[in-house]
Specification:
The protein is an alpha/beta fold. The protein is built from 17 helices and 16 strands. The protein has one domain: Alpha/Beta hydrolase fold, catalytic domain (Rossmann fold). Strand 11, helix 6 and strand 12 form a beta-alpha-beta unit.
């Protein structure tokens, strides 16, 4: 009986030695066996005296560490949970179907690894994902980011965290200790520290530290672009963190950047809202309970957004200034947009006046030409979505791709336009974030999914994995995808059908100020 029972014994838990620790993970279900290691610390907890400080390297722990549970998400409100609830509601489900993080905490700098081969020296391509959420929300193990199905394609997948909102994007004069330590852009520094951890340790998980692709969505893509451009601005090229980039729904590399003085003026406002005056000390700021910091951030002036600032240490110039003098030699890039990024955020009652008011506020000199360009769109809500999607995401991403190709790199552009079946798909279209379940092959059980969705997911994963492996998305079994250039502006359309098309947005992007 003992011999018979041993035939059905579970395989031993996967173990690796990384960063001076023994990590024990778990095998998870996937098309092939995949090892999952979750909740791995990549930096010391940024709490107490380390709040609003550059991340410090993690201190190895003694004994075997069980990397089998996800860590709390970084401090945030319910905006991402509410976003999932809105999507679920459009497909006829209540908020109870939405998965939530394992709590929130300032102690949140952890990452997760999925690998199909834990043999050191396997040298598999590595894909490191940076989540979105307007730099105010999100976590590394949202349902659509679980990496086992993507890893089963032959890559090591890593998902990371970074400080959010006022914990990751904040500055105050009191933080300057006179010793040259960073006083801003802590979230970018967290992301950089996570990539450094990956470079140093991913070989233990079967990954190739010299073949790392960063990929991110929305603000996560935005932050990756900031890091790339900052490295290029320092003359370091793109070899310091990653070899390749996939930027999904990236918005506005040309967006205006605040200066450090402007950021610290906002820091004064936040200090006042937590009950501290202008002569506050760094110690006093760091002693404010995290919940109170988060509450005060909600009271900042309308329109405030959390993003990198020009601090002279991690960001030196505006993205547009760097793009104007770009040398993209050696850069491989995929950038793309969803067809209806803004649709779910627009009221059903959107009117033609709303469309005309937006044009007046954002492109008044081209008012008549823009009105003529969208005249055939009878639904004002769709017309406004078209304009806002182009202005905030589509045109900036194409501009970035064109600059990369013009200055020595290679860039490919996609448009994701798959609309889910049913009424929910009609209401939301190819909404912001809609591509994520396809990239990871993690379709929520409540999300209308059919054979077309599964086929599209397989194709997108093939493109992403091939790009991470070789530097080009092209290969046997998928439609050819040409590089994007001003002379041949072809894009890959990922939707009900998969294939190339001429970029139809050139005229619109020109009117919106993008060459």
């Amino acid at each position: 009986m003992a011999a018979s029972a041993s035939l059905f014994a579970s395989p031993p838990a996967p173990e690796v030695q990384a960063n001076g620790e023994i990590l024990s993970g778990a095998w998870v279900a996937a098309p092939v066996p995949v090892a999952q290691f979750s909740g791995i610390p990549f930096a010391r907890p940024p709490v107490s005296e380390l709040r609003w400080s550059a991340p410090r390297p993690h201190v190895p722990r003694e004994g075997k560490q069980y990397a089998t549970g996800f860590a709390p998400a970084c401090m945030q409100d319910n905006r991402i949970v509410d976003w999932y609830a809105d999507v679920a509601g459009a497909f006829g489900h209540g908020p109870e179907v939405v998965e939530r993080p394992a709590g929130v905490s300032e102690d949140c700098l952890y990452l997760n690894v999925w690998t199909p081969d834990i043999s050191a020296g396997a040298r598999l391509p590595v894909m490191v994902f940076v989540h979105g959420g307007s730099n105010e929300g999100g976590w590394s193990y949202e349902p659509n980011y679980i990496g086992q199905n993507l890893a089963a394609k032959g890559v090591v997948v890593v998902t990371i965290t970074y400080r959010l909102g006022p914990f990751g994007f904040f500055s105050h004069r009191a933080l300057d200790d006179g010793e040259g330590e960073p006083v801003a852009n802590f979230a970018l520094l967290d992301i950089r520290e996570a990539f450094r951890w990956v470079q140093k340790n991913i070989d233990s998980f079967g990954g190739d530290p010299e073949n790392i692709t960063g990929f991110g969505e929305s603000s996560g893509a935005f932050d990756l672009a900031d890091l790339l451009l900052a490295d290029l601005d320092r003359g370091k090229g793109n070899q310091s963190l990653f070899r390749r980039l996939i930027l999904q729904s990236i918005g506005g590399p040309a967006r205006k950047r605040r200066t450090l003085d402007e950021e610290q003026a906002i820091g004064d406002v936040l200090a006042e809202k937590v009950g501290l005056g202008h002569e506050v000390t760094a110690q006093q700021l760091r002693q404010v309970p995290a919940d109170e910091v988060l509450k005060a951030a909600r009271q900042l002036p309308a329109g405030h957004y959390f993003s990198a600032v020009i601090d002279g240490k991690s960001v030196y110039r505006s993205p547009q200034e760097v793009l104007n003098q770009l040398d993209a030699s050696g850069i491989d890039l995929i950038a793309g947009t969803n067809a209806d990024e803004w649709l779910m955020y627009l009221a059903e009652e959107t009117t033609r006046d709303d469309v005309e008011n937006w044009i007046t506020e954002n492109a008044s000199e081209e008012r008549q030409a823009l009105l003529e360009l969208i005249a055939d769109q009878q639904d004002p809500r769709r017309a406004l979505d078209h304009l806002r999607t182009a202005s905030r995401m589509l045109c900036p991403s194409r501009n970035l791709a064109a600059r990369v190709n013009q200055t020595g790199g290679q860039a490919w552009v996609y448009l994701f336009d798959r609309q889910r079946p049913g009424e929910g798909g009609r209401r939301l279209g190819a909404y912001h974030g809609a591509e994520l379940p396809y990239v990871f092959d993690r379709h929520d059980v409540w999300l209308a999914t059919d054979d077309k969705d599964r086929a599209l997911s397989a194709a997108i994963m093939d493109y992403w994995v091939r790009f991470a492996s070789t530097g080009t998305p092209n290969g046997a079994g998928t439609a050819a995808w040409p590089v994007f250039s001003g002379k041949s502006p072809e894009i890959m359309v990922l939707g009900d059908s998969i294939g190339t098309a001429q970029d139809a947005s050139r005229a619109l992007c020109t009117l919106l100020g993008y060459d």
